[in-house]
Amino acid sequence: MELSAAKMAKCAYEALAEKKGEDITIVDISEISPIADYFLIAGGSSAVKRNAMTDAVEEAMARLGAEGARKEGNGQSTWILLDYKEIIVHIFSDEDRSFYDLERVWRDGKRISPEEL
After folding, report:
1. What is the pLDDT, as a whole number, of residue 42?
2. Given this model, what pLDDT does residue 1 score?
3. CA 59, CA 36: separation in Å to the nearest integer?
4. Domain containing residue 92: CATH number
5. Does residue 117 form part of some domain?
6. What torsion do the CA atoms of 16, 48, 42, 15 make, to the nearest 10 degrees?
7. Which residues are CB-neighbours of 43 under 8 A, at least 6 positions away?
8. Nearest CA-CA partner of 15 in 95, 101, 89
9. Start-to-end C-alpha separation, the chain
10. What is the extent of the structural domain holding 50?
11. Is 61 part of any domain?
12. What is the rounded average pLDDT of the residues 36-51?
């Protein structure tokens, strides 16, 4: 059974929200880029929180049946990226999120709510 990008994005969103991810943003980039269908961008104010969010996404996606993500970043990183091909999850420290400002970089994408998935 093939998983839809929308189902994967909703699963990742719920995992981030469960761990109190801050200002979770979903950007539909399917019309503007071939690299993925959705970006999920979330903040975590501490390394402990970012690690919990990362673990929650990985566990939820595994239960969903999504293949293991390519992961960039580790327990002390201020930006952790989980690439599931159809969706890419970005978990930032507050400072790095503000600095890299992916929402601005990908402003041509469509911001959507989890209910739209």
Report:
1. 98
2. 56
3. 21
4. 3.30.460.10
5. no
6. -10
7. 21, 22, 23, 91, 92, 93, 94, 97
8. 89
9. 19
10. 5-112
11. yes
12. 97
The 10s digit of each residue's pLDDT in 61-83 is 999 999 888 999 988 899 999 99
36/26 Cα distance (integer angstroms)? 12
- State if pTM tops 0.90: yes
Query: What ranges make up the beta strands (E) of 38-104?
Result: 38-43, 70-72, 79-83, 87-92
Cα–Cα distance, 15 to 61 (Å, whole number): 9
* Domains in the chain, number: 1
Mean pLDDT over 107-111 rounds to 97
Q: Supply 34's token pair.
A: 């071939």
Find the radius of gyration of the CA atoms of the chain. Answer: 13
Nearest partner of 24 among 40, 5, 11, judged by Cα: 40
**Are 84 and 57 in contact, with CB atoms under 8 Å apart?**
no
pLDDT digits (tens, 9 = 90+) for 20-41: 999 999 999 999 999 999 999 9
| Amino acid sitting at position 33 | S
